[in-house]
Predict the structure of Biotin-independent malonate decarboxylase subunit beta.
Amino acid sequence: MIPEEIVRSPSWYESSARNRIAGVLDADTFHEILGPAERVMSPHLELFDLPPAFDDGVIVGRGQLDGKPVAIIAQEGQFMGGTFAEVSGAKIVGLLRAVTAAAGTPDGVSAVLLLLDTGGVRLQEANAGELAVSETVRALLGVRAAGIPVVALVGGRAGAFGGGGIVTACCSHVVISEQGRISVTGPEVIETNKGAEEFDSRDRALVWRVTGGRSRVLLGGADSYVKGDVASFRAAAARSRNAAPPFTLETMAAEQERLEKRLSSYGDCRDTPEIWARAGLADPASVPDIDDDAFLALLSEREIKHDAR
């Protein structure tokens, strides 16, 4: 049953991390671990005269989705860009390790839902943040090796950049909306290192063409495309929890083969309309402009499926 508070389908992009959790899970089933009342905050931000958050911008806990137990992690993109840091990273890694330890027991969960909304590593805690990303990847793969799918939901203001892009690629299934963006290197970083001639970070149309949800699902960087409301993300999370591929060497080999084919087919393209034209889309220039219903119909017609992860 869909929680009553999301009947009006609020925007995922506009919602806070806590509201996204409330909308995805069954009503009144969420139990938070290390919530704001525990006051587990970053010990470093005070040195930079920056205000901390009582949850350090990450919410972790357990709940139910369609009556089945799940673990859930949500980054708050409006606090420090949802960045990975010492405390926030420890909360993520701790929950993932607990899920792996409980696999196959009465305390086990059917899936992990990862609500990514991050610009990557927190610069004020860069070393700890880099470690947090690497430990998150290791813990996440441990969850998958235990037979538990990890479903990423991407559609927030910060997207999934830097370490968040790496973590996304490690998940069993990635759900994205038009507003979602995924990339290891952010637009501003590319521009800083290569110049605006290479990539103009102020060109929003360019940014979304390259890193946005439609490009990612067409290229296989995401597995499911949804409209940008909370109810659609909830429905996709429930579906993909049961559709994730097994974490085996065969799955990894299939994914490697898919990526090699993608590079061979499109590696010399300068912009996504070139890719869509080469892929055979009838009107590649229209992809960013059509509405969600038309884009979902396009995906259905082309039978876009990227099951290898």
User: Anything to note?
Assistant: The chain is about 40% helix and 15% strand. Strands lie at 31-33, 58-65, 68-75, 111-116, 150-154, 160-161, 173-177, 182-183, 224-226.
